[in-house]
């Protein structure tokens, strides 16, 4: 099997390092501060915090909360990205609903894993 010349191998290692550094924030848990900021900028334009007290009896799980955020974001001019949605859900859960965290691979981790798989395929 032919090996790549050292300078190409070093360049590839540098690219992989830069990609890993760029993806590092994606492996973190949902950003509650960012979720609050997104919520305050977009959701509070239409309703106040009192909605969460009444809705708490209807929403029974973290997945139910995710579904509620997804359903209502259709009303926004600028819908959330998947990562932003997870941040908003995390903020609402910590601040109002208090559902136990599910043992589930986060969207950020899934994206990082997908990027790693793509790099392995390219080798």
Task: Describe the structure in your own words.
- This protein is mainly alpha-helical.
- It folds into two domains: 1-29 and 106-123; 30-105, no CATH class.
- It contains six helices and no strands.
- The protein has helices spanning 6-23, 32-43, 50-55, 62-73, 82-97, 107-122.
- Helix 2 packs across helix 5 (82-97) and helix 4 (62-73) packs across helix 5.
- The longest helix is centred in the first third of the chain and has 18 residues, at 6-23.
- The protein is elongated and about 65 Å long.
- The chain starts with 5 loop residues before the first helix and ends with a helix.
- The model has no long low-confidence stretch (mean pLDDT 78).
Q: Helix segment count?
A: 6
pLDDT < 50 runs, ≥5 residues: none
The N- and C-terminal alpha carbons lie at a distance of 14 Å
Structural class based on helices, strands and sheet pairing: mainly alpha
The overall strand count is 0
> What is the number of independent domains?
2
Shape annotation: elongated
Largest sheet geometry: none
Our estimate of the beta-strand percent is under 5%
Give the fraction of residues assigned to helices: 55-70%
| SSE ordering | HHHHHH
Radius of gyration: 20 Å
Mean residue pLDDT: 78
Note the topology.
Layout: H1 6-23, H2 32-43, H3 50-55, H4 62-73, H5 82-97, H6 107-122
Helix pairs in contact: 2-5, 4-5
């Amino acid at each position: 099997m032919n090996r790549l010349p050292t300078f190409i191998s070093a360049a590839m290692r540098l690219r992989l390092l830069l990609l890993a550094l760029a993806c590092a924030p994606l492996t973190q848990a949902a950003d509650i501060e960012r979720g609050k900021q997104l919520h305050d900028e977009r959701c509070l334009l239409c309703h106040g915090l009192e909605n969460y007290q009444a809705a708490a009896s209807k929403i029974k799980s973290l997945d139910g909360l995710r579904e509620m955020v997804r359903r209502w974001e259709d009303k926004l001019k600028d819908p959330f990205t998947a990562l932003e949605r997870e941040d908003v859900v995390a903020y609402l859960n910590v601040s109002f609903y208090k559902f136990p965290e599910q043992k589930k691979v986060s969207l950020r981790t899934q994206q990082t894993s997908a990027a790693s798989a793509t790099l392995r395929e390219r080798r």
